[in-house]
Specification:
The protein has 18 helices and 13 strands. The strands form two sheets. Strands 1, 2, 3, 4, 5, 6 and 13 form a seven-stranded mixed sheet that branches.
């Protein structure tokens, strides 16, 4: 392999993966996107005496920089630092996958067995990236089919990781076929592996398409209005009085709602505290909160049976003797502590309010990664909407209870990227899912479109209908097989209405969660133990 080919393979891989990515990509390219890197790794293995184990990291790193930069460059619209860090951290993590894979192959008696280890390591990496403090599930391979719901129907059994597994196995087979071709494989001898590769790609796609066209929703209608108020997050969100925001959004809702409407869904962080007057939204005394009373005196008077789902930025102060959580902040005067939350309320013509706090927090915005190390920097979190800095969060996934047969899973913004997290609401009884978000920070780019496309994946995994309200971006409805209805235009105020079906059946994925990823972690550990053991044995033999 000459120098120019070694340099071009990572570029080719990065471009293939970027060209496959939603929105607007051609996801079939995912089946080939990693194969150039597998060829490069194999070349380094065959020439192991000339290259150190860690050399593969630097060889594949450009591919992942290209992929991440071309697909998530839009983060730049809100923060240059965030865009650079997201690209670099992800590229480092993905490159480490290849380093571990290469390390395993170097130390196995049969290096070809290492390709199973590669699959385990990549799935383990994606699982880690869903759960550590620098969580960023955006680039998980299984998300690549988000715009093709007819190819994802079996996600109700496997979750998104089933798609990742599908892509990884295909790439290994493509690599092996290309390698054998380079070594003189005849056309006749290539027919069988080509048929195996074609079957691997086509059979799941055809099976999923059959599932797509034969899936029938149970008739359990719920009438939902979604509002997109289109508040400028940079100029208006923190300047407009809450009363004006509520009035404007309510007028939009009234253009679609009537006496038959069951729910009106407003976006994340729509109601903000008034910083200039010091009127904060304290959860300690919500019954006397003026903005909640505005909804009760307005929309709930006109439509008494409706339930309002509204995004707020709220706070809770702690009294002497209360247990102070680690997320709490100290008042500037130094006396007492309080928590800040990204909150969703269900407001009805009942004395009680149901609420949920965002739990999957955005690193660098709502979550200070590794607080034991970086807590002193918590006040410098990037401002991307709602309450910023280290936020408080809920531990349990508690749906809103409407009656004995209907519960709603409230999902706030970034949480929609996490399959097992959303499934937690369904395991606790949710029959439908409402997603509220604020996607105005990234401009009219692929960012808000990519974010919306997590909703079809979650709908298929859980077989739950979804109503999605974005401050701006794409508000829409999604049925249980992942079809998107009435997507709104970016930067336009809108209200849309749809009848959605509730569902009480629990899918295999909801019941067992990310079992593919957890099993892969065990597989990765086993391969690493074998590789380390053989390496130590080799040193002793010398």
């Amino acid at each position: 392999m000459n120098k120019y080919l070694r340099l071009s393979l990572p570029v080719l891989s990065g471009l293939l993966l970027a060209a496959a990515w939603p929105a607007g990509g051609f996801p079939v390219l995912l089946f080939f996107g990693l194969a150039p890197l597998l060829l490069l790794e194999d070349h380094l293995l065959q020439n192991r005496l000339k290259h150190s184990t860690f050399h593969v990291f630097f060889r594949v790193f450009p591919a992942f920089v290209i992929w991440n930069a071309l697909t998530t460059w839009w983060i730049y619209n809100s923060t240059l630092f965030g865009a650079v860090m997201a690209t670099l951290v992800n590229a480092v993590c993905m490159s480490l996958v290849f380093w571990l894979f290469h390390f395993i192959r170097r130390n196995l008696k049969n290096p070809d067995q290492g390709y199973l280890g590669f699959i385990f390591i990549w799935l383990s990496y994606e699982h880690l990236h869903h759960h550590w403090d620098l969580n960023w599930p955006w680039m998980s391979l299984g998300n690549g089919f988000a715009a093709w719901p007819s190819w994802m129907q079996w996600y109700e059994y496997t979750g998104m990781y089933g798609g990742t597994l599908w892509i990884l196995v295909a790439n290994v087979l493509v690599f092996k076929l290309v390698k054998r071709s380079l070594n003189g494989l005849s056309l006749k001898a290539a027919i069988r592996p080509l048929m195996v590769l074609a079957a691997l790609i086509v059979v799941p796609a055809v099976a999923s398409t059959i599932m797509y066209y034969t899936y029938t929703e149970k008739h359990a209608p719920v009438d939902v209005v979604v509002v997109q108020p289109n508040i400028d997050p940079y100029e208006e969100q923190y300047e407009l009085p809450a009363s004006q925001v509520i009035e404007n959004a309510s007028k939009l809702a009234e253009t679609k709602a009537d006496s038959l409407t069951d729910f009106i869904v407003f976006p994340e962080s729509m109601v903000q505290p008034n910083w200039s007057s010091g009127q904060m939204i304290w959860e300690n005394d919500l019954n006397n909160q003026p903005t909640i009373n505005m909804f009760r005196a307005g929309l709930l008077t006109k439509f008494p049976r409706v339930g309002l789902v509204v995004g707020y930025s709220t706070y809770r102060s702690y009294s002497e003797g209360d247990v102070i959580p680690t997320t709490a902040r100290q008042f500037r005067g130094g006396e007492g502590y309080y928590d800040a939350y990204n909150t969703a309320f269900l407001i009805r013509n009942l004395p009680d309010l149901q609420r949920t706090h965002k739990s999957k927090l955005t690193p660098g915005v709502e979550l200070m990664p590794f607080p034991w190390l970086l807590k002193p920097l918590g006040d410098f979190a990037i401002d991307l909407g709602g309450t910023t800095g280290q936020l408080g969060f809920d531990v349990e996934r508690t749906p809103y209870t409407i009656n004995d047969t209907l519960k709603i899973g409230p999902v706030i913004c970034y949480e929609s990227a996490y399959g097992e997290f959303v499934a937690g609401f369904v395991r606790n009884g949710a029959n439908m899912i409402f997603i509220i978000t604020n996607d105005g920070w990234w401009g009219n780019t692929a960012g808000h479109r990519q974010h919306m496309l997590f909703a079809p994946i979650r709908a298929i995994e859980t077989r739950r209908s979804i109503a999605r309200s974005a401050n701006t971006g794409t508000s829409c409805f999604v049925n249980q097989r992942g079809d998107v209805f009435q997507p709104t235009k970016y930067w336009e105020p809108a209200a849309i209405r749809q009848i959605l079906n509730a569902n009480d059946k629990v899918t295999f994925y909801v019941k067992y969660g990310d079992y593919i990823a957890r099993g892969s972690v065990l597989g990765m550990i086993l391969f690493l133990l074998i590789a380390v053991s053989r390496r130590l044995q080799g040193r002793r033999a010398r």
